[in-house]
Amino acid sequence: MSVLRSVVRVQRDDFDLGLEVKALRSGDTGVGAVAAFVGTVRDVNDGSGVSTLTLEHYPGMTEAALEEIAGQAHARWRLNATLIIHRFGELQPTDQIVMVGVTSAHRGDAFAACEFIMDFLKTRAPFWKKEQTPQGARWVDARSTDDEAAARWGAEPQAAGLPPAQGR
Amino acid sequence: MNITLLYFAALREVLGIERESVQLPAEVQTAVQLRAWLAGRGDVWSQALAPGRALRMAVNRKLADPDTLLVEGAEVAVFPPVTGG
What we know:
Oligomer: heterodimer
Low-confidence stretches of chain A: 155-168
Helix content of chain A: 25-40%
Order of helices and strands of chain B: EHEHHEEE
Largest interface: A-B, 28 and 17 residues
Largest sheet of chain B: 5 strands, mixed
Structural class of chain B: alpha+beta
Mean pLDDT of chain B: 97
Number of helices of chain B: 3
Shape of chain A: globular
Low-confidence stretches of chain B: none
Number of strands of chain A: 10
Strand order of the largest sheet of chain B: 2-1-5-3-4
């Protein structure tokens, strides 16, 4: 028997992928697949070196937006649990920024939901990156490729009225 | 109607303001009307909020469409397209 679970955390602190995945699937004997994604800070972006990345967010809305995205993933695929952790504050190259973990009975749902959550998060969760480069500080511009990635899943992300996901 | 306005990221820096309470004239009812009204403040406001500028708005912490209705006491945020993840 699977228990529907959705956890969202917005935090300054780092996280441990292994511990988070262990907790996510703990005690759930129906899980046959775990998919996890971690996004990290690169030292180069748009041709400039990046020494520090500062993430700003909209407290209150951020959590609600991530919960809505997770809820849409649960509505579209057969998932046992989802976890979204997103950091804010000052980060350095190689630091972890974000993780998404998904458990399911089968890999197809887990892979697809993990990618869906990241694609939607990048276009709908209120975070903004500011880079420190040798030329000075600059705000990162949104990429059209991120909009295109989110659009693959359906332009109108209201959970009702979405076609059912293709199976595994 | 009275609302609270929040500004984030590059827009907050350009405008030099993070939060304000405003009383809207009766004709400002929707998100896009609010944006135009703010642009009408002139100077840096008219540049940063010009119609061609890519901006997003949220009303009571939900992403808004241009036609989203404002409500008394709403928290309305204006910000650049998001870049998290």
